[in-house]
Design a protein that fits this description.
The structure is a homodimer.
Chain A: H1 18-28, E1 32-34, E2 41-43, H2 45-64, E3 68-69, E4 75-77, H3 78-81, H4 85-91, E5 96-101, E6 104-112, H5 117-127, E7 136-145, E8 159-169, H6 172-193, E9 199-202, E10 214-221, E11 227-237, H7 239-244, E12 248-249, E13 255-256, E14 259-266, H8 268-277, E15 294-298, H9 306-316, E16 323-325, H10 332-341, E17 346-350, H11 352-357, E18 359-364, E19 369-374, H12 378-403, E20 405-407, H13 411-421, E21 425-430, H14 434-444, E22 447-452, E23 472-477
Parallel strand pairs in A: 3-7, 15-16, 15-17, 20-21
Antiparallel strand pairs in A: 1-2, 4-6, 5-6, 7-8, 8-14, 9-10, 9-22, 10-11, 11-14, 12-13, 17-18, 18-19, 21-23, 22-23
Helix pairs in contact in A: 2-6
């Protein structure tokens, strides 16, 4: 219940200290709480409800694209993790090792899954014999563990919740199509449901997932001008299949190696929402994932008829949106601050004078616009307003990204623009050489985020580093 | 896809070898697959979909009774687990220990949660100050690990999926009411949705959860006459609160210790469904949790108009039930066996002659009854049939339990009845002494499953062991 000390004034302002502003929101909006296990957090009801809405929407999108949920064990025997060389090199340094079961030392150490490619491969080898067994399009909603040194709620934690899709196909073409399709699913979800514009791209060789042929990602720009990787989709070719001995008989009875993908998004998306839409009054939630889409606050609730009317209005809205009535004994002013802090998209105020006029005051969180709405029209107006909020959030985030995307021609230009305009995406051509990628990072501080999938360099574009002919348009940035 | 070798005849008959019959179903109905991690399994799409339906229904029941979902870390520091003496004694011998993160040895070992009371207590201590903060009614859907020696799919595995409810209340009365309410929720779910009758009872002192004041359980009787604990609900009193320093200021500003509960059900319920309803043709699923509630099998599907009609019928049923059309190139006979094996409650056959007559053949899995249904009536008849299936399954399971519940007066009677009638529930009065409980177990082989909550001994009832005045009616049995 309400803690009267918790006031909006307690949030650090974004401009003063962005990192502190972020953790203030995480704590004061009651999304997370720390625990005695370093780097692991409690996701509290309000934070978890946001994740449940993300899950529900994404799970529907996965099922609509033909995927089935499964559940693999959380443990991976050391020998199984070690099978794929690149993969183990990428993950072994950051896994948690189980060495004892009860009082007995295990014969073989087990790692707590950092990701489950090896388990899926072992399973595929057991269940795939013929072309009739393909494709398998699996997903699981689980938590994984990576032993990070520095941690921050949602953005980087030792245990985090995610979904990992794993699919296996008869042909490379089909697997590549799947990789791209799931990147599109993620981008659609982020843009439509989270109101967060993303850049779709491919990672450079040095930034690929351990064991992948190609890694695709969606990148979003946060309020502070830093980039955040919001989802990844990997194409594995038949490398894992060869290592794990997964083969199938095709229609001509020839033995072939199938092609694989994996793709994932995590609770990091909650961090992305905070840092894309939040402001100095707290969280601002896109309606699709808001646990409460509209809060109704009675004014002068002790006066006869107010609470009755408020409950009547709430009942009329019950099939329309996720609505909460706050009839606690806190003051309306306190409640306004509380639900602003919690990022509830729409606030509805109803007092005796409103009731007399058959109206209410409707305030949208993201722009604090106030309008009077007739109570009869509310069930029609509220969904329109929620749509307006989503569109308004998206437009604002897109404008911010555009303002902070700098087209640069050389390293000096990058340094100058970042200095003058602040952190942001640097959009600049690249020759494709790793040496130039490293040089840009070292000289300017921005690393390659992704190679654009939609933009190609013109004939006259040259690498931002070496001045040779450019092969790609790359988004560079400082990253979370 | 279909494996032509997989035929019904391959299932071991229940009477021949019940344990093998069980694992045959788990494997051949594609519920689980083994992995290289001993005692951990892959839950395959068909098995996981059953769990998803269980989750969806239970989660709705939890939310309707005022609970919120959260997510705690999967790790518990050794010192935190050690805080509550009874609790750690109960769980420490069977936990998995993480000792290393990456290449570094941890300063303190972490156990993979076997259950999360200690984490919830630590969290409560952080967030509860006043009576306004109470109650907290939390639940989480996670997996837990217990390092069991012998394992069987769903029934006993080293990692299993479950939900754990954890609540904390200002008064003992409120916490006890919660403990009982959640036992009722579990019983309602098992009886209504899983069509599985349960006995509601209280565990004896020796069989309580580690750290609990009282443990309540629902017990079900399996086909082979063994008892299965299907869910538990614990009342903790204020013991954990005292150990973990959880206090709140009441309305008079006096500091008090709150009272706690926890309650859980697991993927073991899938095992319960298999062993309550399954038969020698395979799985039999109660409609509420069946991934496919009705399968439509076209007969002579190459003939013009058959597939068109089948798809039209499926479309008409789309809002009515979870319906699948199998138009694969396997024979109708193979398909009949396949979906019997998979326990699909209703099979609908549609061939050219049926189409001429505007009808279909509808077969209910549990009793193999065949009826002709007019295609126009199907959207009305199908839900009725699904209800009939649930009721039929429940009646059959209840009759089986009644047939195998033996009222006994002394140990010789128990031995004689079990010998004559086979394993089952023994219903017999008990004096309340642990020595008698142990003696019964040792002499007759059946242990106390639970003390009935609804039945009281009469004045003349005497303990089945010592002959002294009886205090309780106890259900005894051999247990999974």
């Amino acid at each position: 219940m309400a803690d009267m000390n918790k006031m909006v004034s307690e949030i650090t302002s974004m401009d003063e200290d962005f990192a502190k502003w972020y953790t203030d929101i995480c704590r004061k909006a009651e999304l997370v709480e720390y625990t005695s296990v370093k780097g692991c957090m409690v996701i509290r009801p309000y934070g978890y409800a946001i994740w449940e809405h993300m899950q529900r929407i994404l799970d529907g999108m996965f099922k609509a694209t033909g995927h089935e949920n499964v559940c693999m064990p959380m443990f991976i025997p050391e020998s199984l993790l070690n099978k794929e060389k690149d993969h183990v090199e990428g993950f072994a340094p950051e896994v948690a090792w189980v060495t004892h079961g009860g009082s007995e030392k295990l014969e073989e150490r087990l790692c707590v899954r950092p990701t489950s490619e090896t388990l899926f491969c072992e399973h595929y080898a057991n269940i795939i014999q013929s072309w009739r067994d393909l494709p398998k399009k699996y997903n699981q909603w689980v938590s994984v563990v990576r032993w990070e040194k520095t941690t921050r709620p949602f953005l980087r934690s030792r245990e985090f919740l995610w979904q990992e899709g794993h699919t296996i196909h008869a042909t490379a073409a089909e697997a590549i199509e799947e990789t791209e399709r799931m990147l599109d699913v993620y981008a659609d979800f982020c843009e439509n449901d989270l109101a967060m514009p993303v850049v779709k791209g491919r990672k450079t060789e040095s930034d690929k997932f351990a064991g992948a042929v190609a890694t695709y990602a969606i990148e979003a720009l946060m309020h502070d001008g830093k980039a955040l990787q919001a989802g990844t989709s990997h194409y594995f070719g038949d490398g894992f299949a060869k290592t794990f001995g997964i083969q199938f008989s095709d229609k001509d009875n020839k033995r072939s190696f199938p092609h694989q993908t994996s793709w994932g998004v995590t609770t990091r998306l909650i961090g992305a929402v905070i840092m894309t839409h939040g402001d100095d009054n707290g969280l601002v939630l896109p309606p699709a994932v808001a646990p409460i889409q509209a809060v109704i606050i009675p004014v002068a609730q002790h006066k006869p008829g107010v609470l009755e009317k408020v409950n009547e209005v709430a009942a009329a809205l019950s099939g329309v949106a996720r609505v909460k009535v706050d009839d606690s004994d806190n003051s309306p002013g306190w409640k306004y601050s509380e639900y602003e802090m919690k990022g509830v998209p729409v606030r509805i105020e109803i007092g005796p004078r409103d009731i007399e006029k058959g109206q209410c005051v409707l305030v949208t969180r993201h722009n604090r616009e106030k309008v009077f709405v007739s109570l009869d029209d509310l069930p029609t107006v509220l969904p329109e307003k929620l749509k307006e909020v989503r569109d308004g959030l998206y437009a604002k985030a897109l404008a911010n990204r555009e303002k902070h995307t700098y087209c640069c021609i050389d390293k000096a230009d990058i340094i100058a623009k970042l200095e003058e305009l602040g952190d942001g995406f640097v959009k600049a051509p690249w020759c494709g050489e790793e040496a130039c990628e490293d040089d840009v990072k070292e000289t300017t501080g921005v690393g390659s985020r992704c190679i654009s999938l939609t933009e190609e360099p013109s004939d006259s574009d040259v690498c931002v580093c070496c001045g040779k002919k450019a092969k790609h348009i790359v988004y560079w940035g400082k990253a979370y």
